[in-house]
Amino acid sequence: MKYFLTVFICKIFIFVLRVLGKKATSAPGKLAFKLYPDILKEFQKKVKKEVIAVMGTNGKTTTNNILADTLSNAGYSVACNRLGANMDEGAVVAFIEKCNIFGKIDVDYACLETDEGWAEYIFKMITPDKIVITNLFRDQLDRYGEIDITMNFLKRAISLAPNAVLVLNGDDPLTVSLAADFSNEKIFYGIKNKEFDNAKDSGEGKFCHFCGKPLKYNFHHFSQLGDYSCWCGFKRPALDVCAKDVKLFPALSFNIEGFGIIELNGRGKYNIYNILAVASSILNIDSGFEMLKKTAREYKPQAGRLEKFKIGGKNVYLLLAKNPAGFNQSVETVKEDPDKKDIVIAINDGIGDGKDVSWLWDVEFEDLMQENTTSYSVSGSRYADMGLRLKYSGLSEGEIFLCPDIKTRLKELIASGSGDVIYVLVNYTALFSTQAVLKELGGNSNAN
For this structure, is 172 an active site residue? Predict the structure, then answer.
């Protein structure tokens, strides 16, 4: 009776919040835990096949959503926290949304994006059958500190799921070394050969986690991801699922060895790893790869994942980037576009971002200094810091537009900017407010 009452009340709460224009991704979950603390344990009993937890610094929202869509296209019922509410409350809401008003639920799979620092707590309530780890980079320095702290969070979480299959980015030495102590079944994915000529040296995991010596690389794809080895014997594992023959522009396509060509309705080399993570998670699904191909072709980016708006005849792209590795990939995506473009960068220092913005100096903003970039604008609560960073990237003060009000600047660029396309790069707490501004200015998300 407690279970049914909890679901009933929370369903009504979700409805009311959304009528009021709220996303309702976490608050109903908090209420659910107050009414029934063991509700996640109850939901696990109702999952017919697998609970899949998707973790990692970058890419987990995209990976989780593509995985859920692939399983749905294959005919399965899926619970999924699609909007990135990745703590325990978000997981509960994902299940409640699949329930009818009387608490009845029909779920084959649960795809749960899971915060790295919160995973241990969640796994005490719901034990995953698969754990996907996309990568490990420095992120939110105020909260996590250095990467070793995040790795320790994840080790404690994995220890609570001794029977879970680990789906791991084999190109990431930090992710591979994290899992070395566990006897769980492992599936490694990665990019087989050198595919990117402009990849820079490792920015994160430069040293072997076991002996402390510098890692040697046959090639980097970006940051520490690539084909690595160490004199002590640690090296990139044999890849179970791998990509080759990559094309990046105008849209992303590549060959998954043994399966075939994937074509994504989108761009960004980081999406290769996101799709490989999904492919590695559905190896036991009949027709899974064909459904992944369908999902990739129909893919519509979530908020800030190269989300496209058409406003006043111009294409405006919104890109979320919240740490050096992610921002460098956004920079690369912008750099690859040969069109004339205006660039707007909004940096906040809210709780979700961290007050420490020193990581901006680890981003290769110098790569944005191109002849086909017609203007540079900075906004957000730390617009002055971002302006200073661009000055040290080679711009004069007169070339940098300081715009505390991003709406006014976007209206100017849409009306009279000299670029053919506008790229808006934001960190986390600037994302939804900027998305709202673009919609207010008449943009339809993912417009053709």
Answer: no
